[in-house]
Amino acid sequence: MTTKRALVLAGGGVAGIAWENGVLRGIADESPATARALLDSDVLVGTSAGSVVGAQIGSGLSLDDLFARQVQETSAEIDPGVSIDDIIDLFRIAMTEPSTTMPQKLQRVGALALASETVTEPVRRKVIAYRLPSHDWPKRVLRVTAIDVATGERVVFDRDSGVDLVDAVTASCAVPKAWPPVTLRDRRYMDGGIGSSVNLDVAQDCDVAVVLVPAGESTPSPFGTGPVAEIASFGGKAFGVFADDESLRAFGTNPLDPRCRTASAVAGRAQGRREAKSVAAFLDTVNG
């Protein structure tokens, strides 16, 4: 019986994109076979920052080249002019109404997102387009999460959704208050990490999942259940790599700030080297 494997890439801002690329590059430094196994996963699941990394991996560009893109001085990134603490406060406010369902809470977040002053959609889309080596959906399975602003329901885009890859990733990265909700057909969408930064259940058809989480293992989630609980409750076997203290220091106080990109990539690579043996052992176990 064939084991179906997923690489799940969580949200975490510009820092998260750089860190996840760095972790994969660091694993490749120590164990090329382990890195290849991760890159060859049957399913890629990307949420917010993770959707960028999933699309980057799906492009076929080498880990060397992807890492180099993170540490180069020039980029198209722009500062949103808002701190992550302000955004988390927004989430907490929306979560405080105990009598509402999760979709209703996310509708409240969506309403605040629509009311926020941000750059225009075309300006933001241009930034995302620059991040992606290819603007075509990969032939392999890539699932990108977003939230429908009007309904508060999560949607999952893939190559069969009839949505452009750049648009899907832009929607998944539309952090409320920082970036504009994305218009696709007659709907508006916001960041797929609202509600869950991991969305591990999107890989529920897989037997095995390795999850990269650019946050501390003990970091509380404003949405209640966090990545640790999601990994523990996964129907198959799952292994999480969480940002360690060194990586968290590299992220700085605001993972949305483009200035943290290089330090986050370098810290991620160093952590990837340290984590390579554990990831390899996990994959050896599940592969029998």
Describe the structure.
Helix 1 (13-30) crosses helix 11 (261-286). The chain is globular and about 45 Å long. It has helices spanning 13-30, 32-39, 49-58, 63-71, 84-95, 102-115, 121-131, 165-172, 227-233, 245-251, 261-286; strands at 5-9, 43-47, 141-148, 154-157, 182-184, 187-191, 208-213, 237-242. It has one domain (5-78, 118-275): 3-Layer(aba) Sandwich (Cytosolic phospholipase A2 catalytic domain), CATH 3.40.1090. The protein has 288 residues and is an alpha/beta fold. The longest helix has 26 residues, at 261-286. It is built from eleven helices and eight strands. Strands 1, 2, 3, 4, 5, 6, 7 and 8 form an eight-stranded mixed β-sheet that branches.
Short recap of the structure:
The chain is of the alpha/beta class. The protein is built from 11 helices and 8 strands.
Q: What key phrases describe this protein's structure?
A:
alpha/beta; 11 helices; globular
Write the SSE topology:
Layout: E1 5-9, H1 13-30, H2 32-39, E2 43-47, H3 49-58, H4 63-71, H5 84-95, H6 102-115, H7 121-131, E3 141-148, E4 154-157, H8 165-172, E5 182-184, E6 187-191, E7 208-213, H9 227-233, E8 237-242, H10 245-251, H11 261-286
Helix pairs in contact: 1-2, 1-3, 1-4, 1-11, 5-6, 7-8, 10-11
Arithmetic mean of pLDDT: 95
The Cα radius of gyration reads: 17 Å
C-alpha geometry = globular
- CATH architecture label: 3-Layer(aba) Sandwich
CATH T-level fold name: Cytosolic phospholipase A2 catalytic domain
How many domains make up the coordinates? 1
The CATH class designation is Alpha Beta
H/E element string? EHHEHHHHHEEHEEEHEHH
Number of strands: 8
Structural class by sheet pairing and helices: alpha/beta
- Which percent range fits the helix content? 40-55%
Uncertain ranges: none
Number of helices: 11
**Beta-strand percentage?**
5-15%
Terminal CA distance: 12 Å
Largest sheet: 8 strands, mixed
